[in-house]
Amino acid sequence: MDAAPSPAIGIPRNEGPTPLFGAYGIVKRFGSFTANDGVDLEIRAGEIHALLGENGAGKSTLMKMLYGLLEPTEGVITHKGDIVQLPNPEAARRLGIGMVFQHFSLCENLTVAENIALVMPKALSGKALAARIARLGADYGLHLDPSRPVWSLSAGERQRIEIVRCLLQDPSLLILDEPTSVLTPGEAEVLFTVLERLREEGRALLYISHRLDEVRRLCARATILRAGKVVGACNPREETARSLAAMMVGTAVREVTHRKRGTPGRERLRVDRLSLPAPGLHATSLRDVTLSVAGGEILGIAGIAGNGQAELFAALSGEIRAPSPEAVRIDGQPVGSLGINARRRLGAGFVPEERNGHAAAPLMSLSENVLLSRYATVPLTRFGCLKLGSARDLARRVIDAFDVRKAGPDPAAGTLSGGNLQKFVVGREILAEPGVLVINQPSWGVDAAAAAHIRQAVIDLAARGAAILVISQDLVELFEMAGKLSVLNDGTLSPAVPSAETSREAVGLLMGGASDHGSAGGSLPPVHEMAPVPLPAHAH
Hints:
This protein is an alpha/beta fold.
């Protein structure tokens, strides 16, 4: 059936079959700020359609309107050619729209099953729901324990809840916002198989990702947004990742410049035989973790989510105290028993994995967030506090240096897109010129240009003499940034090796618990000792 033309409501006549869902003339304003400006988008059954754009281009705003979380200021949304109203997510779900969120919409104090039950029919609960979760997890490789509370889960495990919760609703349109941002290559490969199966079943998928090789692999059509407007469309399979990135940002994306690594300076961060019991029922114990990072060095730590990354970060930042002061040293000083402010006063900076709620207070302004992270480390007024005006100046410096896109001069942190908030949090720490920086998932959910900017800023900070520890599941990122690599598996850290002397295959195997000795906790073998192991296509 062809869609009927309707100039009065701005629905254009289609040449082919009626799209499953359409959005026409979509405008969304927040006060004087226009997030979407006359956007047209058509999504067909049986296709994976990419929506591309840099951070702040308006992608998430458009998706929220398709899912009923926001209402358009102007324009219409159609389902099979008919105009529909989507006042809330329940209405969207009734039409067969499901959404996997980039920022987790989960209740921390509820269990996995309870979070999923919130969007399921009342008849499906208890043992029946737990059985469905287990069966779907087994089928798709998205394993979850229905009884675990969400607060105890890693970011990767929380992402699995979002995906499973959506798939259990049997959607005809599945919207995925950065679905692989916290997945390992193996987990992502399982997801791609699921998505291809859903496409073959005749479902429509709208795919948002900054991992452009994934887009080229999965998607046959792409719509590109820039500054809230549609600026182009293409077949991603006929483009390169670099050409797609250039369309998104309007100019060529610069490559990360690797500075020549000289002789490392003095040791600035040391962890010596750190063992910690699991801080919660479902957390991971750290066992005999030892590492050293000198000034000018970047140490990368790879690992699958839930293997102790969060616990290691907390022990390094001071959120969890070590058993002895000597277990963690910053510039030679024992700090294992000190809290985060004391460590910051010694010149350390920290970027946690979860930006909303951990790295930033979402309801507070950007300048207030700077104040929270700097009040204990900068010169104070005679009344013993940091001037808010000074914090605003620092916030503006971060915004300018890291191209943070925002609405208003000093908005609440929670109003920024995920990628822009990540740029702000990373920039806030780097512009403090720390002597030691610990950063967890540095470019999670940011576009190609922003990822290059962040990685370059970290490399430049190391070149100025800082010791940097990077925790990441992105092997491309780690090999691009780090001079040495270790793998954290089940709370045990492998010895560090130069990144030039190993491979992504070797690191990936050790992330999964294998080693050159055939057991977990081994060391990374050099490249010449590795038999070739094929990587997933998107990892090349």
